[in-house]
C-alpha cells in the first residue's frame, strides 16, 4: 500500500504523445487520417455484411461484431487524443477517466472473445465441413455473441467499480489515456484486491482465449496436413489466413505493451505500443479481412452494380 498526500482528485492530467510543438500539426493530421480510415473501413465492412444476403453467415456475423468492436475501441481514445493535441493543457475528469477505462476494457476484452469464436468457426469449417451448417447454427452463433458481451460487460464493470473505491494521491499525471495499470500506480489506498482480480480475470480474458485459439489452429493444421491436394491446402490456409493475421497483431501488441516491460526508453516504447494497440490494429483489421477476400470483394461489386443500375434507371425515368 502506498502512502502519500491523499486528496480528492477531480481530474487527471494527460501527458500525451512525446512530440515537439513543431511536429504537432503533422502528427495531428496523421492520427486524424488514421482514425477516419478506421471509422470508414469498419463501417464499410459492417454495411456490406448487413446489405448483402450472401454474407449472412456465422463467420461474417462474427466479423461484423469485430468491426463494431474495433470502431468503438478506437473511438474510446482517439477523439480525446486528437482534442488534446490541439489544446495546451490536456486533462480528463475523474468520472470521465473511469468511463474511458470502462469502455476501453469492454471493447478490448470483447475483441479477445470474438477472436476465440471466430477461431472456433474456422475450426468447424475446415475440420468438419459437412457438418458446418449444423454445428454453427444461428442459435449457437447468437449464443457465442451474447456470452461474449455478457462476460465483457461484467469484467469491465467489476474492474471499474474496484477502481472507484480507491483514493488517489496528489500526483494525478498519467501518460496517454486512462489505462488500469496507470491509475493503479497513482492510488494511495490498498490495491491488493484490484491486483488479484486483474490476475484472475486477466487469465480469463487473455490466457484462456489465447490457448483456445492455439488449440483450434493446432487441430486445423493437423487436419490440413492430411489433405493431399495442394489446391485444398492453399484454400484451407487462405480461409483462416486473415484471422491468423488479426490474432497475431492483437496478441502481439498486448505482449509488447503489458508482458515485456523495458527499463530503457520505456516511455517511448509504451507510447509506440499503445498507438499500435489502440490505433493501428483497429485500422488494419478491415484491410486484412477485405484484401484477397472474394466474398467481401464480391459483395462490394454486387452492391456497387446494384446502386449504379438503380441510379441510371432513375435518371432515365426522369428524362
Automatic annotation (TrEMBL):
Coiled coil: none annotated. Gene3D superfamilies: Rhodopsin 7-helix transmembrane proteins. Keywords: Cell membrane, G-protein coupled receptor, Membrane, Olfaction, Receptor, Sensory transduction, Transducer, Transmembrane, Transmembrane helix. The chain crosses the membrane at residues 26-48, 101-120, 140-162, 196-215, 236-259, 271-291. One of its GO terms (cellular component) is plasma membrane. It is found in: Cell membrane; Membrane. It is a multi-pass membrane protein. Residues 41-289 form the G-protein coupled receptors family 1 profile domain. One of its GO terms (molecular function) is G protein-coupled receptor activity. InterPro entries: GPCR_Rhodpsn, GPCR_Rhodpsn_7TM, Olfact_rcpt. Putative odorant or sperm cell receptor. Belongs to the G-protein coupled receptor 1 family. This is Olfactory receptor. It comes from Muntiacus muntjak.
